[in-house]
Amino acid sequence: MNDKIHVIFGFDMETDVGSFTPYYDGVKNATAPLVEMFDNKGIKGTFFYTGDAARRNPESVELVKLSGNEVGTHSLFHETVGDQLFPIPGVVPLLPEEVPFRIRKATEWVEEVLGEQPVSFRCPRLWSSTAVVNALEELNYVVDASYPMYFYRERLVPYHPSEQDWTKEGNLNILQIPNFADMVMKSKDPGLERDRDQWPLFRTKGANALMKRVDSFIKFMRQKELPVVLCFYFHPWEFIPLEKSYHFGECRVTPDRFLTLNCGDKAMSEFGILIDRLKDLGAEFHRADEFASLWNKAHDVQIASV
């Protein structure tokens, strides 16, 4: 696999602006244009639905399924199921003992709409944990595309995690896919180093700015003689026009500007450019589940029955 550049595009199908609004305008209005772009470009990807998003938007799930793209899971209500990396007001992480129930319930809700059990998962904000990975293993998930490379900075390629520590290699069947980050640049964010992360550079600075990071990462990985796997995360709400602030309930929420900057047509245009630039490099595009099968076969991984 070292000879190819492998790309996994994942869309986190959730409420608009993450947990900061109760609306699903992105899921309702951006699914069809994104699927159409994938069809036109001849690529496939994975759409990770919260259980609530799937239940409230069955037509979106059906469209993704019929298009040949993968439907995965993204928690129940976009809650923090894993280890919190930084605090968000009003967003309280689940207790570890709550995690198995919530993931099982999320899986059931997506399965009810999809007609089959999803096998790929991504945690909201890439905040996974050992409890999450063990719960996914119990439910026969194939992929957890949650590892934030920018934060842990240890895993550069997919791996099978340990049941004692999800950030370490072990013998679990599930494949952990790290999300791409620029591991060459000098971070200006001590501790968290979130500026290494790829998101949302494609729309705030443009596809070409993101490709500079991609090119740097490819060179870095090839010098190490490691396979190049680029796992990206996006959100449907990035591809519709957003308000600068939202009022609902008893408050007004004003997201930081980077969350809403250039959402809508600009994001869709830059996303198309990003696909073309990656195709120019000869990249192969995969659904998360299909990539896991390819990876396991290439590495002669024998999956034990659970």
Keywords:
5-stranded parallel β-sheet; 37% helix; 13% strand; 306 residues; 3-stranded parallel β-sheet; 11 helices; TIM Barrel; alpha/beta
Structural commentary:
One of its GO terms (biological process) is carbohydrate metabolic process. It comes from Paenibacillus baekrokdamisoli. This is Polysaccharide deacetylase. The chain is an alpha/beta fold. The chain has a single domain, classed as Glycoside hydrolase/deacetylase (TIM Barrel). Helix content is 37%, strand content 13%. Strands 1, 2, 3, 7 and 10 form a five-stranded parallel beta sheet that branches. A three-stranded parallel beta sheet has the order 4-5-6. A two-stranded antiparallel ribbon has the order 8-9. Helix 5 links the parallel strand 4 and strand 5. Helix 4 crosses helix 5. The chain is globular. The two termini are 27 Å apart. The mean pLDDT is 96.
List the helices and strands and how they pair.
Elements: E1 5-13, H1 25-41, E2 46-49, H2 51-56, H3 58-66, E3 70-73, H4 99-114, E4 120-121, H5 130-138, E5 143-144, H6 149-152, E6 175-176, H7 201-204, H8 207-223, E7 228-234, E8 246-248, E9 251-253, H9 257-260, H10 265-280, E10 284-286, H11 288-298
Parallel strand pairs: 1-2, 1-7, 1-10, 2-3, 4-5, 5-6
Antiparallel strand pairs: 8-9
The gross shape turns out to be: globular
Total of DSSP H or I helical runs spanning 4+ residues: 11
Percent range for helical residues? Answer: 25-40%
Q: Gap between N and C termini, in Å?
A: 27 Å
- Level-1 CATH class name: Alpha Beta
> Can you tell me the number of structural domains?
1
Average pLDDT across residues? 96
Strand content: 5-15%
Could you give me the name of the CATH homologous superfamily?
A: Glycoside hydrolase/deacetylase
Low-confidence stretches: none
CATH architecture: Alpha-Beta Barrel
Order of helices and strands: EHEHHEHEHEHEHHEEEHHEH
- Number of DSSP E strands: 10
Instruction: Label the structural class.
Output: alpha/beta
Whole-angstrom Rg: 18 Å
The major sheet is characterized as: 5 strands, parallel
CATH fold category name:
TIM Barrel
